[in-house]
Amino acid sequence: MAPERASGDPPEPPAASAGRAGSAGAARDDPHGAARTYATDATDATDADATDEHCGEVELARYRKEDGRALILYRWRPDGGTE
Amino acid sequence: MSELRYEELRGEEVVYAVDRQRRTFLPPADHCPLCPTRPGGEPTEIPFPSFEIAVFENRFPALQAPLGAAEVVVYTDVHSGSLGTLARERARALMWVWRERYAELGRREDVEYVYIFENRGTEVGVTLHHPHGQIYGYPFLPPVPARELAADARLGGCAVCALARRELAEGTRLVYENEGAVVYVPYAGRWAYEAHVVMREHRTSLLACETRELHELADALQALVRGYDALFERPFPYVMAVHQAPTGAGRESAGGRGEDSKKEVPARARAYARGAPKKERSTATDPAAPTGHLHVEFYPPLRTADKLKYLAGSEQGAGTFVADTLPEESAVALREAIARAAGAGDGG
Question: pTM to 2 decimals?
Fold first, then answer.
């Protein structure tokens, strides 16, 4: 159920916290109509190794959500490379 | 799927996005779809336990491919706060994120204008409190940036450059400046505490900025937002609008054509591309062409600590803003508030 990486650009995932190994579990009823796209296991989505993509002082990781929408995570890496 | 209809009397597009009626509306913090997905917690839009900045395609888009784009930019994984309370490095990172999105969306055939913005506060219709902004990729050039380009043509050069020079010369409406950016209450601002953050040098877009200038832009934005919050000692609602060069005919200035430009352009997008008031000259190759000038406009609806300015008869029906305050007086108050906020920051 984890989001798939967008093809061709699967860089390193975001920094994980101490709780990284846990599973997010299934979505429950959402009385507020909030965006509940997937029940996900965040661990699966963060363990693949890949090439980083840089844009100036940030690096980015691209993912594809279960419903096809794009998700990009950015990290501040001022010395990480150039465009 | 949204529908565009052209309103002939006003000569402008209207976007019908009826699915947005279902969008999340002011959920409690523990149901925030922009928070990270905590281990064992409820899944959100971002299925990771932490992140720095996230961008994703809006689940309830006003615009979407093959006729534009709508993205959400989440500034932080912390539910509370604002652009002003972000760490300095995070705000600077955000400038790079904006830059990257401007470049990527600007390369798309169905995006004529990349518009980065933020709505802050329920007073301007915010439905999620988590610090975030949005990006729309319009398949046409919207009226406000089109008017700015028309001002370039009318004044015979960059209108923003001319106005910034005037503000710097007069000084009475300046509220903040650093090496890269100046902030002022515009001479004919409409909102009581309207402010424009303008790049000091002529920069058509974030892509034209040096790293130093991106940092200085971030510093200026944060100084202004902190000043806003200090003005009435309350979170200050606003609409923040980033204006840059269009990415249509001047798309070379948006980072060049990418591989995706080879894809088939939908008939509807082609039709709009034909009908839109696209620039005929490349901003990258013709210095005389109207280009736009990177600046960020803030429209705060408060005219006092507890009174809102409403768009009523004159504003809506005649298109003429009636202001309740003088820009010079607002600038004094805002300048002092920015200084207070900076002093509090130094002390804290």
Answer: 0.82
